[in-house]
């Protein structure tokens, strides 16, 4: 079975996250039961295998939740997740294109945001409360 295609939750990473930092995503991946996907730029430099590439030159996904972290949000990638039920973007650049495609966005350093988000979800805080500090 293709775990990425079947995943209800997917975390997509861009070049804003170095491969040695992927381990910092593990708490959020665990609480969401999420698979890891990537932009073409990530797979082109070999940080993740091409089988994890999403977008026009990769694959299309339709998870219930797609969390875009450290990516610009260019059309070539985001077209691959347009069927996602909900897209959450986390990026330190408030002008990043990804926010235009997201249902909710958090402007901030992913290394600060991800642990807070994972801890809140792990503690069972209501999704609406956690999403209260995420707005489009």
Q: Can you describe what's shown?
A:
By secondary structure, the protein is of the alpha/beta class. The chain has a single domain, classed as 3-Layer(aba) Sandwich (Rossmann fold), CATH 3.40.50.1220. The protein is 31% helix and 18% strand. Strands 2-1-3-4-5 form a 5-stranded parallel β-sheet. Helix 2 links the parallel strand 1 and strand 2. It is globular and about 40 Å long. The relative contact order is 0.17. The mean pLDDT is 91.
Distance between the termini: 35 Å
Query: Unreliable runs, pLDDT <50, ≥5 residues?
Result: none
Helix content: 25-40%
By CATH reckoning, the class would read Alpha Beta
What is the name of the CATH architecture? Answer: 3-Layer(aba) Sandwich
Query: Which strand-content bin applies to the residues?
Result: 15-25%
SS field, number of helical segments: 7
